[in-house]
UniProtKB/TrEMBL annotation, chain A:
Pathway: Cofactor biosynthesis; Fe-Mo cofactor biosynthesis
Protein family per UniProt: Belongs to the NifD/NifK/NifE/NifN family.
Keywords linked to the UniProt accession: Nitrogen fixation
Superkingdom to which the source organism belongs: Archaea
Protein name (Swiss-Prot/TrEMBL): Nitrogenase iron-molybdenum cofactor biosynthesis protein NifE
GO BP terms in the entry: protein-containing complex assembly
SUPFAM superfamilies in the record: Helical backbone' metal receptor
Entry GO MF terms: nitrogenase activity
Nitrogenase/oxidoreductase component domain location: 41-437
Function recorded in the entry: This protein may play a role in the biosynthesis of the prosthetic group of nitrogenase (FeMo cofactor).
Pfam families: Oxidored_nitro
Cited Gene3D superfamilies: Nitrogenase MoFe cofactor biosynthesis protein NifE, C-terminal, Nitrogenase molybdenum iron protein domain
TrEMBL record, chain B:
Organism domain of life: Archaea
Family of the protein in this entry: Belongs to the NifD/NifK/NifE/NifN family.
Assigned keywords, A-Z: Membrane, Nitrogen fixation, Transmembrane, Transmembrane helix
Pfam families, per the entry: Oxidored_nitro
Species of provenance: Methanobacterium paludis (strain DSM 25820 / JCM 18151 / SWAN1)
Source lineage: Archaea, Methanobacteriati, Methanobacteriota, Methanomada group, Methanobacteria
Transmembrane regions: 326-348
Segments forming domain Nitrogenase/oxidoreductase component: 28-447
SUPFAM superfamilies: Helical backbone' metal receptor
Stated name of the protein: Oxidoreductase/nitrogenase component 1
InterPro entries membership: ChlB/BchB/BchZ, Nase/OxRdtase_comp1, Nase_comp1_CS
Gene Ontology molecular-function annotations: nitrogenase activity
Length: 463, 459
């Protein structure tokens, strides 16, 4: 079989086309040393899950760089405080590396508690903290006893694994081991739920919460977008977990099911079809005729006028192609939403996908779709050049690779500027996609100084 | 001048904060090394560490520069931490050599590999021995543990590493080596314009002006296709002198001075009138060049810009934070404009900075008793606390200052690194007479926007 693009021998099996023999790329293998990886580390994975908890201090136990490069980059919004946006570090220096950083960590935790009186202090172990063997668990325990504040160790040394997913799990474990089940809600209803794996990037959760509340469910906590730690502590009393980011948070939902017997439903609020299916799934779960009626109403109201609102965008977007290269969940959860805009997903891939993620992708995409695992920057550029999609959905590191190639780009990661979840979110999504794809700049980028004729590439794009 | 009032390591708030860093105002050594190496043609940086190091640095750099940024990783994992990173480093060098075909690989260490004690230089030698007879790129180890120093030291070490490994004595070239010590592509562009106008042949170490402000073209993907070449770096040993536009990045100049007896001077970053004068004078001192009319004209235009704006700027109080060379040069410039740089905040401790601050009032009337509050080795928490008591009209620094500015109800003039919430960080220039003119106008317009009404009357 001819390789899809020129690359390392060992990388060839990480790309495949659905319907042509192998339908799942090889995945979950270490990054090839020397390549420009798009992956982050285990510490980054843990931080992603926990960072949106708004009333907490996120203390990075390590040298300054780990905190300096990662604070306040998640794009998670808060309707309450903004403590979570502070960049806190123990700033380990040479002396600490030699003599150990435990004392400094302890002093720092005590000090931060005094300064901010946070809901919790999450202490993240970085590579070097792990190598010098700082016992952050015992420091956290001791500091918690002294302060009365929740001090939670997150054992997230960056080198632990090549797959950031391990970091997600470590973040989830920190919640399981130290937060969930440690407080009781004042009242309980038969309709208590948690929204799990929703990080409120650009305010997504605010497009979902009102719908659920109108249905009549009671949201105990969101884990972890726009949340406070005390709410998560009560989440074990929920009757249902709905899981949005299944990449990072199925793990937590499974653990909660095992320990507390809470069943979970996989939901997806990107796109009309996904949103209404998710709402109906929740209503079906509670099996309350009144709620079902209400839900149908909500859906009716929700979709009313949507077609009209997106008409103009859809006209321009129909027939255009999309490539997805994202952190995980979005590799399959967005596909249907694009189809609703009349667009076709021709490539999808993730940086940290596991076998089950690719199974999911395979089920969702059409025959002939390219599926790619852990593409490094060179491969990504080659794939974009070969397939010339009309849009790439990815994050900040990929943004300028795409745009230099004249491939329109829409950020679905940290730098996203509008909320896309729910019915209203879908209209904003359509608007953002249209803004990325249909801008006249893309007509200009392929013109040449010496000729006013449209180049071949522009013609291709326009057809 | 009275004594400078120094508040070190949060000493200002003795009851509050001793240990923690809250909202850092500096980054780690590898970040600086990456920035330096991006100015070398056909080079690639390989960070020997966990994959997160390279990815998060690329994230910060790419959102500041709005350009693709390539940094390779040896992608260490648990096993390599126990048995050492030799296998991954050898493999990475092989993969890069074969696929990327760079002229030069800068191998930058991280806190992880420094702590586990990997002998990078030794492993690189081993790699070279294993590939005897093959065409290999230049491979340069740069030791940058992130638990020491900051990105400034990392930048300095990378530039020094380049000349240490490559500089070769042959015949005098009559050129001047210039180490910009600053990463803004636009600033390096301004410096190059001055040298060109002076008709001064130069070697810029390293030159990011084109690679990090590249046109929209797929040809710029991959390794930088412009910047300082290996031949130029080799040739630094034959120049007439080295001028470092930063007091904290002069190790390469000192090395060349020691080894090849090439005169080395480190001058203030040429922001503002007097500092740009120093730069022009330093060029003249090292060469027998005359100052051309164009330079005199640009200098006159800067003076004109300052005069035009002085009524709006007089005694406006300013706080500045960032890298020490930038902060002191900017403080000197706003003082020339009649403003009062009353709070200066740097992320590291620096005796050179403390010395330089004392020179700000020289030759300026109205600065008797000039006594700024200096936050040394400070973070943005310290700055925020200080600005609660010392009220200022304007804050100058990177995008991370936005929250403080909002809280204080003052405008933030975005400069330094990173600037991610406005367009054009790669095109912000403040160096030289022309860069200073742009800055003077932009600063004054910001004052006008905030403190004057539509008709131009003071609010």
């Amino acid at each position: 079989m001819e390789p899809i693009i020129e690359t390392f021998e060992s990388r060839k099996k990480h790309m495949c086309i659905k319907g042509s023999g192998i339908s799942i790329p090889e995945c979950n293998t270490p990054v090839l040393p020397g390549t420009v990886t798009q992956r982050t580390c285990v510490f980054g994975g843990a931080r992603i899950v926990l960072m949106p908890i708004t009333d907490s201090i996120h203390l990075v136990h390590g040298p300054i760089g780990c905190a300096a490069c990662t604070w306040d980059i998640r794009g998670s919004k808060s309707s309450r405080g903004d403590l979570y946006r502070k960049g806190c570090s123990t700033d380990l220096t040479e002396k600490d590396i030699i003599f150990g950083g435990e004392k400094k960590l302890f002093d720092t935790v005590i000090e931060l508690n005094k300064l901010y009186k946070p809901g919790a202090i999450f202490v993240y172990a970085t590579c070097v903290a792990g190598v010098i063997g700082d016992d952050i668990k015992s420091v956290c325990k001791h500091a918690e006893e002294l302060t009365g504040c929740r001090v939670i160790p997150v054992q997230s040394e960056g080198f632990q694994h090549y797959n950031k997913t391990k970091g997600h799990w470590i973040g989830c474990d920190a919640l399981m081991d130290y937060v969930i089940g440690t407080a009781e809600p004042k009242t309980q209803t038969p309709y208590d739920i948690n929204i799990v794996g929703e990080f409120n990037v650009a305010g997504d959760v605010w497009g979902v919460k009102p719908l659920l509340e109108k249905m009549g469910v009671n949201i105990i906590s969101t884990i972890s977008g726009d949340s406070e730690v005390e709410e998560i502590a009560m989440s074990h009393r929920a009757k249902l977990n709905i899981v949005q980011c299944q990449k990072s948070s199925n793990y937590l939902a499974d653990k909660m099911e095992k320990k507390y017997g809470i069943p979970s439903i996989k939901v997806n609020f990107f796109g009309i079809d996904n949103t209404l299916t998710s709402l109906m799934l929740i209503a079906e779960f509670f099996n309350d005729p009144e709620m079902t009626e209400r839900t149908k109403k909500i859906i009716e109201n929700g979709i009313e006028g949507v077609d009209e609102k997106i008409k103009e965008y859809k006209e321009r977007l129909s027939g255009k192609t999309v490539a997805l290269y994202v952190g995980g969940n979005k590799a399959w959860s967005l596909i249907r939403a694009f189809e609703e805009l009349g667009m076709e997903v021709i490539m999808t891939g993730t940086k940290n996908g596991m076998k089950e993620d690719y199974e999911r992708i395979k089920e969702t995409v059409k025959e002939g779709t390219l599926i790619v695992d852990d593409a490094n920057s060179t491969e990504l550029a080659r794939l974009l050049k070969k397939y010339r999609p009309n849009l790439l959905i990815s994050g900040a590191k990929e943004k300028y690779i795409s745009m230099k190639l004249g491939v329109p780009f829409c950020d679905f990661n940290h730098d996203r500027i509008s909320a896309f979840a729910g019915f209203n979110g879908f209209v904003d999504f359509a608007k953002a996609v249209d803004a990325a794809v249909s801008s006249p700049v893309w007509d200009l980028t392929s013109t040449r100084l010496k000729s006013t004729k449209w180049s071949k590439f522009t013609k291709m794009r326009r057809n | 001048m009275s004594d400078v009032y120094v508040k070190t390591d949060g000493a200002h708030h003795p009851s509050e904060k001793h240990f923690s860093v809250v909202n850092p105002s500096r980054m780690c050594q590898p970040m600086g090394a990456v920035q330096a190496l991006m100015g070398v043609k056909n080079s690639i940086t390989l960070i020997h560490g966990s994959q997160g190091c390279s990815t998060y640095m690329r994230f910060q750099l790419t959102r500041h520069l709005r350009e693709p940024v390539e940094v390779a990783s040896t992608a260490l994992n648990e096993k390599t931490v126990i048995y050492g990173g030799e296998y991954n480093l050898m493999k990475a060098l092989k993969n890069i050599t074969e696929k990327q075909k760079p002229s030069i690989i800068g191998v930058v260490s991280s806190c992880l590999t420094e702590t586990i004690g990997d002998d990078m230089a030794g492993i690189i030698e081993k790699f070279k021995e294993a590939n005897l007879g093959k065409q290999l790129p230049e491979i340069i180890p740069i030791s940058t543990p992130s638990y020491a120093g900051s990105h400034i030291e990392g930048y300095d070490k990378a530039i020094k590493g380049l000349v240490e490994h490559l500089s070769l004595n042959s015949t005098p070239n009559g050129k001047i080596n210039v180490v910009p010590g600053h990463m803004s592509p636009a600033d390096i562009g301004e410096v190059k314009d001055i040298l060109k106008t002076m008709e001064c042949d130069s070697i810029i170490l390293a030159d990011t002006s084109e690679s990090l402000d590249a046109p929209l073209s797929e040809s710029v993907l991959g390794l930088p296709n412009c910047g300082t070449t290996i031949e130029e770096i080799e040739d630094t040993a034959n120049s007439s002198g080295t001028i470092t536009l930063s007091k904290h990045a002069d190790s390469a100049g000192k090395f060349l001075e020691k080894k090849f007896s090439i005169k080395s001077v480190a001058i203030p970053t040429p922001i503002g009138l007097r500092n740009t004068d120093s730069f022009i004078n330093a060029i003249c001192d090292l060469t027998d060049l005359e100052i051309p009319a164009q330079i005199e004209r640009d200098r006159g235009r800067l003076m004109d810009a300052i005069v035009d704006a002085h009524a709006y700027n007089y005694h406006r109080k300013v706080a500045i934070f960032g890298d020490p060379d930038f902060v002191v040069a900017m403080a000197s410039f706003v003082a020339e404009m009649g403003m009062l740089p009353v709070v200066l905040c740097i992320g590291i401790k620096s005796a050179k900075f403390m010395e330089d601050i004392k020179t700000i009032p020289e030759g300026l009337s109205g600065y008797e008793g000039f006594s700024p509050v200096i936050l040394e080795g400070a973070d943005l928490y310290d700055l925020e606390k200080e600005l609660e008591t010392t009220k200022v009209d304007l804050l100058i620094g990177n995008s991370y200052g936005a929250e403080i500015a909002k809280k204080e109800g003052i405008p933030l003039f975005r400069m330094g690194f990173p600037v991610f919430d406005r367009m054009g960080a790669q095109r912000i220039s403040s160096m030289g007479y022309n860069g200073s003119i742009k800055t003077a106008d932009a600063l004054t317009n910001m004052i006008l926007d905030h403190y004057y009404d539509e008709a131009g009357y003071e609010l």
